[in-house]
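Build the 3D complex.
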Amino acid sequence: MHKYVSQIHRCFRCGYCKFPTDYSSFNCPSYRRFRFDSYSTGGRLWLIYAWLKGEIEWSEHFAEILYACTTCKNCTEQCPMKFAPDIVDWIIEARSDMVEKGKIPPRVSRFFEAVYGYGNPLKLLRSDRSAWSNGTKIYAPGDEYLLYVGCLGSYDENAQKMAKSLVHVLETTGVSFGILGNDEECCGNEIYLLGEMGLFQHLVEKNSQKFKELGVRKIVTLSPHAYNTMKNNYPAFGGSFELYHYTQLLNDLIEKNQIKLPQARIAVKVTYHDPCFLGRYNNIYDEPRQILQSIPGIKLVEMERNRKDAFCCGGGSGNFITDLLAGSADSPARVRIREAYETGAETLAVACPSCLTMLTDAVKAEDLDDKLAVKDVSQILKESLSAT
Amino acid sequence: MSDVYNALQKIVGKDYVSNQAEERYFYGRDPGLMPPHEPDYVVMPKTTEEVQEIIKLANREKVPITPKGGGLALTGLVIPLKGGIVMDLKRMDSILEVNEKAGYAVIEAGVTQGALKSYLQKHHPRLRHSMPDSPPIATIVANAVIHGQGRLSQQRGFNSDMVSGLEVVLGTGEICRIGSCALSSRWFSKGPPLPDLSGLFLGWFGGTGVITKLGMKLYPCKKIRDAMLFLTDKADLVPEVIRKLAYTEMIEDIVVTAQPLPPRFKGNFYILLYITGDSEEEIEFKKKMAWEALRVYFESKDGGFVSVTPDMKPSFLAMPSKDTTRFADVSKGGGFEYSGPIAPIDKYQLYLEKLEELASKYKLFYSSAARVIDGGHSMMFSFSYTFNRANPDEMKRAKTALDEAAKFALKEDGVIWKPNIDEQRMVMEKMNPTTLKVMGSIKQLLDPNGIMNPGNWEVK
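Done.
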């Protein structure tokens, strides 16, 4: 029996989970989007408890409430109770029970089918996974780093630009690295969060086996989602590797002067959006900022909600595909774009392909695409290096 | 009934009305111990005009309406006893005006305590409002409607005393302005020098109308805030200590805590007092005055100040206090409720003995926080008991203990704060019959169809 069954009644539905630290606005993405208390973390926990007690029946609406949670961990950060660190695990466990009973929203079901059948949630051909890579070196034993690109970096047009920029920058540094190409498989982070534990275990074992066969020791990931699951979930299945997010590696290379920043200044005001899986999940807040601040001419300004109070783009927990929070000016990515624009920044820097995709769509929906550029940190770094 | 659903959709848009089982379940309950009752619809208006249209619709269709803010009163005041529509007002979330010179804010019905606090800190750092210890999602309006108290209640009275104007949609759908805003654009007084009509709405739990805008007085926000802790093991001294502290007119807030755990707390009374000032000199002077006021007790060895260490301060100074909420999970059960009579401070010892007696009788964990109101004219004494939400027997025992506490408080000169419907009946039974008749006439006049939060303050 999952732990949540004996613990979930402990939520008092006090509502702290809805806020950032200063209470200035609502920081739970699904509550901000829908505004019914049922879509807040407290609402979700009470409904799950009601479902366990048989006080409500399963319905598609209930499932959508459960899966509209982006697992951004704002609630974990804000809940005053001792069980706060467990909240997201309870939601995942409840999802896992729903998966076992076959009670999940159709969009989530399609997500699983795509990953199972194609190795990626976009349902694109495995043989096209490396189409973006344009001769990028395939990892070979002896390379220092495996660059794990991930599904969005491999298939999504915007995220591919991110992957290409990172590869371009890394190739100038002398660091030895390679990719898996068409042999790469979904990391499983979203599969875990969506509660398909069987498929997740399959992916972990398959990936770990492959990494071990190749003698991989260090992995650098494009996506904070992959970084998170490989660092925090894989070891339980015997997959222990040295994990880096690419912003950590780039920052380290800048500090060691292996990336030589240009003298030329590109005067631009930039604001940075903390990805949940880098920030709240793994406490990495400084490295992306240090990279941006090291680029001559960049003025970094902060949004009202930043670091542990950053507002999620709405893409977590597979929502960059399932999109259960879409369709409104109150959709989290659109709210976040407006917040970024209010800083006066010309560029919104991101460090996650999911955030890049969500926020790039949102900037168009807000009709701000000629006023605010959404770029990933490596793209900004690459542009700066090209300016020399 | 689907006609009502369609009509609600036309008023607020399809995204902001639900008749689904999940919303009906959640909005049919609160975190306390009153039995659930589900609404037929949940609706979230954005404007006064939408509220007006919803109430007109409810009048036409004779559908009950229960307005809701944060839903944290714990006594079932937002549980729709007769079904119908729950109107969640939190989308009405604009802070419309802060008048620095006159010292008031005008806010919409859904503005939360947290949002106003944050806004003032950012834009008007020399002003503050009386923040209650309820979680930040509690709304300013709902807190005033239940006559809540906050950090400034020792000095300024109930939070509802600080209201400086109202806009209300009556049970008939008409819009009514109360106070100076009824004849001016300024919101500086809810009553004087006019007849004070705010009492037609404050304390009625939405039974006479839905407050859509509210003026709230703001007070100086001093640069420094500090806490002092006075400890005594003599309950009979507590009223005297409160009176002496209040006499100094220098204490922001006074809260007396009693609880059995951790063991060092048992048998002791912790009187937490707050000092504010714009300089260290001001703080030191006020601390000295508090010290002098209680000197007699150090000399008699009946009490003394306890050092407030740096690790204790963040918890003491936090607004709102997260510790209040944490009480719900003391026994890992996710529940607590309190009966909080407003009572004369000289009743402290008597109430405390009853609190402990009931805890022992019903095998419950207890705590009490007594907040001093208006210079000691009264206090809110909380009979607080935790319960485990997964233990129906303990929930039943907690409810019985609270019922007995309410009866006891009524007998001992207390007036039950934010009473649940059973307690409302007890209050009305004891009330002067003419007063009750006046209440009945007001309700009939303002809510002729009996659609506004029916079940509450129903005069038979």
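Chain B has three domains: 2-88, 95-220, 224-411.
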